Amino acid sequence: MRVIGLVKPCRVSAGVVYVDSMLGWLSRWLRMIGVKAVYSGSFSDEELATVDGLVVTRDRGLYSRRTGDTLLLLTDNHLHWLTAMVMVLNVKPTIGDNSLCPICGGRLIKVNSMEAVGKVPMNVVRRNPTLLKCESCGRYYWVGSHHRGIERTLNIVKELASNGGIEQSGPECLIYIKMKPK
Description:
Layout: E1 2-8, E2 17-19, H1 24-32, E3 37-39, H2 45-50, E4 54-57, H3 60-65, E5 70-73, H4 78-89, E6 108-112, H5 122-127, E7 130-134, E8 140-141, H6 146-162, E9 164-169, E10 172-177
Parallel strand pairs: 2-3, 2-4, 4-5
Antiparallel strand pairs: 1-5, 1-10, 6-7, 7-8, 9-10
Helix pairs in contact: 1-4, 4-6
């Protein structure tokens, strides 16, 4: 068993997730699976200590000071970060209709690919009758070769989460995964 995080309280309320400045990778993946994640590379500990929502951090000092919902990640492994979030928020690690723009968190809408002519490679327009467009920043997204890598990552996270758990330990809970023997 490997402990990958601590969360307080054990049952966090649904809502906005604030991602500490050192966890930008995690904010993009959370948005892709539909979690409203607020991220800024310039968040100060003082700001994060007082926000109303779940704060995700690797900073033990911030975790100790904060009285609201807080998740402390105890690993350098990015897949374990996403696994801990999936377990704490009880969300499915899938890309779908609830996915948000990984860059800005805006809502994604389906558009005719012809709208993107000149903005995306022409072979993308030819292969995809529809694309996803962020209503906020205007970026376009489509299922391409990179999608296999995304799916592979999400499948690993599903597997890790299915072999993990959350266990009460005083006022906080341990988030753990069971490691397969090598």
